[in-house]
Amino acid sequence: MNSNERSNSLKTLFEILKVSTKLGFTSFGGPTAHLGYFHEEYIRRKKWLDEKTYAELVALCQFLPGPASSQVGIGIGVMRGGILGGIISFLGFTMPSVIALIIFALLVQGLDVSNAGWIHGLKIVAVAVVAHAILGMAKNLTPDLSRKAIAIFAIAVVLLWQTAFAQVGIILLAGVLGYFLFRQVNEGNVSNLIFPITKKLGVICLTLFFGLLIILPILREVTSSRLVAMFDSFYRAGALVFGGGHVVLPLLEREFVPTGLISEEAFLAGYGATQAVPGPMFTFAAYIGATMDGWLGGLLATVAIFLPAFLLVFGALPFWNALRRNGKMKGAFMGMNAAVVGILISALYDPIFTSAIIDPIDFVFAVVLFSMLTYWKLAPWIIVITGVVGGMLIALI
Known about the structure:
With 397 residues, the protein is mainly α. It contains 16 helices and no strands.
């Protein structure tokens, strides 16, 4: 690479960092909103991709487990600046909220969060936000009776068999059902997308993705290391979550709250605080990690939960052209997404609703917050501030 090429490459990487960091500070509202921000910035303003390519990339990331908006950002970075561009795009979009949540976790550690009114307010915020997420997801992911039935079955399994395996098992079973039930018709000619990643690297990344799912639990048992156990829990959550950031809540809750590594009050307070910061919901892991092991734990948790996203994007991009033509695989993803709705509804009930809604006034306040978010279309950070203030006022009554 000559000096001009190196200069152009550095200029491209700096531009990716600048644009992604701007999005990292301003992208409120969850994964769907993030995709809108990305479209406005990357497609309309920067014109880095055309509409068709962007739509195809979004489709790929919606089909993969993990944080869809983060994966789209990584994919855009890869297409613009190669693998290093994907990493830089991720850092710019993610680090603002990671830093904010680690700081919040360290501040909360010195407080008695169990009876604080503002903590109770954040719990009620979580009720409104997750209910709002379910409303939109159910409309899109369970439009017919078959997928509604899968969602209901998922609710029953997850609530009546409360183990981490139950959630993973129901997602896999829903994928098998979807594979046979939702056979897709041929959608006509599909364009070829070109990604600067070789199939060899793709195979290595996919092998590493599945290999870590097998090796980490073994290392956890053999070493009895707290950090290895933490890395395993967060990696598994990032690897097995379909449907976006809100769905990671029940997986992480099952991993850390029953074991006493983090209290339910602190867990839900962090989840509420995550609504107040821009960027991906998966940065909630930074808060949990920092609560358990300080800033180092926060960074370790962040790396662990987002590592599957990188491995899947780098692994799937070279093979996406063949995968997106396979109607049976698309059917499997439809079944998995329906199960995601059921898992999210179960999480809304337990632990969110059961720990937040204690008195009638709590329910009334949750309805107000839900209406502000759903009907008045107010920004999530306004809902969070209202929840904090309302929680403090309720505590005085």
